[in-house]
Structure formats: structure tokens, C-alpha cells
Amino acid sequence: MMATGLVSRVALGIFGLTISFAVANAQQTDAVHRAIARTDENSRLAHQQLLTKTKQGVIDIYFIGDSITRRWGATDYPHLLAHWKKTFHGWNAANFAWGGDSTHNILWRLQNGELDGVKPKVFVVQAGTNNLPWTGPPRDDHVDDVVAGINSIIDLLQDKHPQATIILTGLFPRKQNPELTPAIESINSRLAALSSKENIRYLNINDKLTDTDGNLRSEVSSDGLHLELPGYEVWAAALQPRLTEVLGTPSKEDRAPPPTGDPSVANRVDSAADPRSNPTTDATQAQEPVVFTTHEDHQNMLDQLGITRLRAG
How confident is the model at residue 32 (pLDDT cuts 50, 70, 90)? Predict the structure, then answer.
């Protein structure tokens, strides 16, 4: 009888342990940062552009992010692209950022071809602002979502490229929504702790972008979110010594892939250059670069997506 009871208790113990493992595994699965595809046509076209870019040139520095990163090396921001080329010439830098992306969207792109066939020596990551609300204060789970997203991106990069150095840039301040300030500081504090991982270097330049009140200076950002040229100059000055340490001095020749831009801008230029769509337009003039103000750029994105408000990015 005692043996039977003992066996029963052991069986129940094993059963309970099995349930505990099952619950733990389920919770772990639920906690995985979900990769989410962007379904609007312009984002699909941008993804195809970036897939093509993976097959071109040589990529030693691979930039990952949202519009803040994208604009730096984009053909539709020629003044910023000129600075990009001046800063990274000879280091074979390629920009794989896309505007409006949260970490969920970035993770999806990286999992769906944008890391295939490339062998970067350095990844520069600056992402997460689009996980946060456009207006009002964030919840605690917004902060957790950003940190989990960055962690997932880093895990993927290290799984595919364990020898590469990752330069993780902290989130920039958002004067556009001052209620995010405590959350951004909390996120950056947690991101700084990731530098204890192998081959990760954390970079925070916010003290060089802000005034005494902690707000983005007007010359650094005209809309309180995206950087202007002086902001990119600060970022470049912080990146260059770190890149030199990993890659050495830049070569005289640059073999990076050709830069890409917003597909919708290219489509508008192509349409304007077509005499059938605009018979009074000189095709040569129509192919001049299209440059938008920050307000016009925001409105164009809203019109393309058919929405009245666009999240930061």
C-alpha cells in the first residue's frame, strides 16, 4: 500500500513538473518579439529595393533602423546623402532602414531576405521610436516592447554574423512628444546594459543633441523627431572613431551598393518625366531630384497610406 502511494505521489510530481514546463514554454513563446510585415505597397517596394541591394557591391557596414536612419543615406534627401557619402566613403556602408518601421517590422525584414548573402563587419542599429505612442505618455509595456525588440534584432544578427561588431545607438529624444522623455531614458539605460554582451558597443549621443532642458535643439531637429544635417554630423563624429577601431582607416575606393530612396518619390519623378503624363514638362528638368520639406514629406506619406495620422517615423 505504501509503495502504491509512493508511486502515485511520484507520478503526480512528474505530471505537475511536466505541466510547469509546458506553462513556462508557453510563456516563453508568448514573450517572443513578433515579426510583423508592412503591407502597404510602398513598403513592399522598399523591401524589394533592399533585397536587391543585398546582391550589389560590398557591404562592410550595415545600417538598421527607421526613417531617422533611412534619410541619412537616401536619394530623396540629397543633402543628407552627400554627407553620408562624405562620412562613410571607403568603408562600404549600406543603409537598410525604412521609414515608419517599429522593431517588429525591422525584425520581419531581416528575417525575410535582407540579411541573406551579406557579410558585414559592423552593424549600426538605431531603432524603437516607432514602438512608442505619437502622443501622450507610454505604458510600461511600451518600454518593454522596445527593449525586447532590440534584443531580438541583436540575437538575430549575432546568430547569423557572430563575429560582427554591433554599434547600438540609443533612442534619440522626442521633443515632438515630451511625455516620452522618462520612457526613452529608461529604454536607453536598459540598452546600455546590453553592451556587456560580446561584440556590442553602446553609443548615446543625446547630450550632444539637446539643450539644457533635454530637448532636441532646433538646428538638430526641425520637427522634434527627425534629425537635420547638424544632428547627423554629431552622430557621424561619434561613429567614426568606433568604425576606425574596427575597420581601420577607410579606403580610397568605395564599393558600397548604390543608395536607394522612397519608391513613391521615384514613381512621381518617372511619371513627371513621361511626356504622355505631362506633355508640357521637359523630361530633363523632370528628372531633377525631388526634395520635400519635413511637413510635405509627412503629408505625402499620409496621402499614400490613406490615413489621417502616421506614427513617428
Answer: confident
Half-sphere exposure of 130 (CA within 13 A, CB side): 22
Walk across the sheet containing 165-169 and list its strands. Answer: 93-95, 61-65, 122-126, 165-169, 200-203
Which amino acid, residue 117?
G
Percent of all residues in the chain with a pLDDT value above 90, rounded to a whole number: 72
The pTM score is 0.78
Dihedral over Cα of 212, 217, 220, 223: its sign: positive
pLDDT tens per residue, range 129-184: 999 999 999 999 999 999 999 999 999 999 999 999 999 999 999 999 999 999 99
Q: What is the pLDDT of residue 235?
A: 98
Checking if the pLDDT of 25 tops 70, the result is: no
